[in-house]
Amino acid sequence: MTRLYAILAAVVVAALVGGAWFATRGGGAGDDFAQCRASQIAGGSDTIGGPFELLNAKGETVTEKDVITKPSLVYFGYTFCPDVCPLDVARNAEAIDLLDERGQDVTPVFISIDPDRDTPEVVGDFAANLHERMIGLTGSHEQVKAASRAYKTYYKKQDGDEDYYLVDHSTFSYLVLPEQGFVEFFRRDETPEQIADKVGCFLENL
């Protein structure tokens, strides 16, 4: 009996360890990207992302179907941001270049959460200066708020001079695929190499 209990205990431990690994990978039955996921999404990845309507650098109204035509790395920020946004967006651009070297085509997308100052022209110049393929988007307050809500981002304008205020905001970058929608997010402490490796895993399993 002692040996039987030992065997049963070993089976239980193995099951628990396997279950813990499975949970941390974020996988599930029928998930083609289970081996690529490194984060858990409360409620599932389907709760993030979705339709949006914004303005591109030419002032044209575009939707997610016009913008997310290729795998895309999406970031919400603002062009007057003094430190965080330039660093994060430059990091994303570097990850895009690393993926280019590996033959993997990903589009960087920048969505402004400061529509009062970030006109289509301003956003377009900001995006073009950081990467030749980066798409810059802005919109009305209602359009920007709707896009932010879809991606569960946070932003709040601080009090101050009407021309030189700051905007508090979340700093996640989102991997969005044309057919699948949102599949993963990246924190700002991740390096270009780490992001490129993780994005590459998703692309290899499309």
UniProtKB/TrEMBL annotation:
It holds the Pfam family SCO1-SenC. CDD domains: SCO (cd02968). It comes from the Bacteria. Gene3D superfamilies: Glutaredoxin. InterPro entries: SCO1/SenC, Thioredoxin-like_sf. PANTHER family: ELECTRON TRANSPORT PROTIN SCO1/SENC FAMILY MEMBER (PTHR12151), LINALOOL DEHYDRATASE_ISOMERASE DOMAIN-CONTAINING PROTEIN (PTHR12151:SF25). Belongs to the SCO1/2 family. This is Regulatory protein SenC. It comes from Phaeobacter inhibens. The gene is senC.
